[in-house]
């Protein structure tokens, strides 16, 4: 049996390749879209994988007419097998005069119950956050008006990118006054991306002055990539900018965390200190005062653990960091991102690092957290490679990533 698996940019192109290699009678056994990380999908086009064989007989599906005929026959057989309900019997059987009033009363009771259910549903809609309940800011709907069709297209794309409905409507409301009747969906996308980019807070990279010690602490929940991010920044600063860099770790809770950072320190030839108490932190900072940059790796803390957060705050009070970076993962939910940014604000965070862009299918859920915490974004990371998978945050790139692939494609085509 000859079986082949081919990849192409579209299903049509894949089928053409199958016919060319296996002949017109080849049968498709399996199709799937080859998934990439978020940045890969933004830069590269989608890929379709098709598996086919020229020796497998596949039973063709029934036509639509045949399907309807089968469904109608099944319905008739089912109705014939079911006994007539008492209500149907009451409505169909001739009744004497004294029963006529009873039948009318029954019909009125049923209609009253239906009306009561309708009012209840409408009441629930008014209490919800659905578009029906918000007449002052309705969501775009399909329309014969080309301008409204364009708005509806862009709204749908933002919702598919994971943006909450209210965020998508707010962005469209912000650009609507600047959009004319001739504006296409592409034009509206550009204006939405520009509007969001102007709203995002970007701080730029860490400012390091040779001869002056800059201390930066990295805090955040467990598993968001603090240690790997520190290793990337240390490597970039030491190898590319020739800064004198030192590492301090407080993460003595996680198994092998110290050894992980020590391995990076040995590879890049950096001094490293392990501290467990505020006093040891103060002493370690004093020993590294002659360096250009000191990066502090803290243990991951649950936003719900008040005791651990107070312990972290005491440790940072002895370090006196110039910058305290909150590290958050893009694969977290909106609620978790908002709660983490709210609780870690208590330890004095003033910058934001977003990690795992490569693992996030959508970034729309990040927007409410960015708006809520009002922290400027310094860096974005999209992989485990040290020091490659990190970049300085840039407003338009981040806006395109949050809004979805269609906005990024528009930006690249316009730039070209």
Structure, explained:
The chain is α/β, with parallel strands linked by helices. Residues 84-91, 128-137 and 411-416 have low confidence and may be disordered. It is extended. The strands form 2 sheets. The chain has an 8-stranded mixed sheet, sandwiched between helices. It has a 3-stranded antiparallel sheet with strand order 1-3-2, covered by helices on one side. The longest helix has 31 residues, at 97-127. α6 packs across α8 (185-199), α11 packs parallel to α12 (306-319) and α15 (395-403) packs across α16. It has 16 helices and 11 strands.
In a few lines, what is going on in this structure?
The protein is an alpha/beta fold and 416 residues long. It has 16 helices and eleven strands. The protein has helices spanning 11-22, 38-43, 64-81, 86-92, 97-127, 146-160, 165-175, 185-199, 226-240, 257-268, 278-287, 306-319, 334-344, 366-373, 395-403, 405-415, and strands at residues 3-8, 27-34, 47-53, 214-219, 245-249, 272-274, 293-297, 323-329, 351-355, 377-381, 390-392.
């Amino acid at each position: 049996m000859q079986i082949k698996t081919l990849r192409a940019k579209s299903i049509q192109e894949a089928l053409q390749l199958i016919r060319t290699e296996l002949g017109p009678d080849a049968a498709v056994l399996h199709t799937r879209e080859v998934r990439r990380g978020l940045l890969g999908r933004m830069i590269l086009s989608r890929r379709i994988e098709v598996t086919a064989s020229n020796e497998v007989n596949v039973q063709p599906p029934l036509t639509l007419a045949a399907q309807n005929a089968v469904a109608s026959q099944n319905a008739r057989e089912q109705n014939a097998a079911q006994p007539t309900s008492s209500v149907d019997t009451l409505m169909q059987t001739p009744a004497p005069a004294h029963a006529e009033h009873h039948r009318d009363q029954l019909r009125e009771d049923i209609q009253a119950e239906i009306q009561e259910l309708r009012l209840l549903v409408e009441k629930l809609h008014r209490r919800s956050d659905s578009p029906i309940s918000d007449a002052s800011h309705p969501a775009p709907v399909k329309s014969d008006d080309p301008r409204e069709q364009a708005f509806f297209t862009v709204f749908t794309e933002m919702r598919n990118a994971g943006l909450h409905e209210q965020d998508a409507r707010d962005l469209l409301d912000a650009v609507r006054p600047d959009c004319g009747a001739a504006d296409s969906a592409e034009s509206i996308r550009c204006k939405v991306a520009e509007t969001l980019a102007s709203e995002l807070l970007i701080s730029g990279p860490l400012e390091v002055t040779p001869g002056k010690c800059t201390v930066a602490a990295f805090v955040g929940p467990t598993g968001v990539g603090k240690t790997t991010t520190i290793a990337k920044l240390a490597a970039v600063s030491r190898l590319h900018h020739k800064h004198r860099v030192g590492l301090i770790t407080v993460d003595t809770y996680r198994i092998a965390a110290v050894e992980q950072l020590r391995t990076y320190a040995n590879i890049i030839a950096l001094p490293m200190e392990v501290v467990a108490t505020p006093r040891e932190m103060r002493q370690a900072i004093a020993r590294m005062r002659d360096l250009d940059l000191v990066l502090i790796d803290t243990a991951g803390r649950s936003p719900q653990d008040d005791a651990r957060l107070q312990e972290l705050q005491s440790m940072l009070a002895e370090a006196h960091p110039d910058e305290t970076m909150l590290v958050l993962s893009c694969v977290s939910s909106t609620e978790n991102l908002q709660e983490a940014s709210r609780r870690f604000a208590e330890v004095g965070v003033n910058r934001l690092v977003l990690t795992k862009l490569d693992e996030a299918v959508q970034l729309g859920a990040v927007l409410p957290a960015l708006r809520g915490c009002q922290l400027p974004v310094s860096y974005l990371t999209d992989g485990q490679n040290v020091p490659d998978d990190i970049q300085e945050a840039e407003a338009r790139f981040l806006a395109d990533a949050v809004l979805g692939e269609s906005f990024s494609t528009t930006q690249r085509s316009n730039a070209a």
